[in-house]
Write a structure and sequence with these properties.
By secondary structure, this protein is an alpha+beta fold. The chain is built from nine helices and seven strands. The strands form two sheets. It has a five-stranded antiparallel sheet with strand order 4-3-7-6-5, with helices on both faces. A two-stranded antiparallel ribbon has the order 1-2. A hairpin with a 6-residue loop joins strand 5 (about 185-190) and strand 6.
Amino acid sequence: MPVTAVDHAMAILERLADEPGGLSVTGLSRHIGVNKGSIARVLISLQGTGHVVQDAVTERYSLSLKTVSIAHRYMDRLGFPELIQPVLNELSAATGELAQLSACDRDRLYVIAKAEGENRIRIESLLGREIALHASATGKAWLSGMARDQAVRILSNSSLVKLTPNTVTDLAKLERELDKTRKRGYALQREELMDHMSALALPVCRTAEKFPVGALVVAAPTFRFPETRIPEIHALVREAAARIGALWPPGAVHLPLGPAGAKAAPDFSTV
């Protein structure tokens, strides 16, 4: 399929989302791998529609509030903020740590909401970012909630990048880790996604369905996440995930395509 101006526009918007200070035409060309002439033409169109703005002094381009508001309007129409934020706030307050909710979009997971803990040393939030399925407790929890063959298919099509010395990138080892996750009832990662960070997560399933629509995680610096805390955090995340599943609005996510992982997810409410 030929690359179009729309592809370039989306690549520009995605890149600018990670650059609060903005990027020049040259910077965007370097990051995206498209010649400066094509980048400049697309930017003119995006500026004309109000989706990017240019700083008059630095000549760098940034996302406009109009672009940012699109996601907020969509989430607001679904009713997510008022439905789930109180649950996340309670989970974060009970653990003192960062609580994050992710939702699936086909074969990918994105962090859509968070609540910060009160501890001074905090974990970097991934709000709005795509989750590395193989390296995160969030990704492993989500994958463990679906049929094994579908989880393997999604992992096989993912980029298994080594993010830390502890990141597992071997597909066979990841399959065994998912089997272990299903048996114990929660996903756990120890400094696989970020150095000095550990996390525990469970899949979130709508009450009316058993396929996981997302995952809920509590993350903390490893020194605040000893083995002795796991039972307490597991119980709190399990309760919060069940509450969010009961509140989750229908049609809010796009489930993975391909062979239906429609085998019922493991019942983590009683594990």
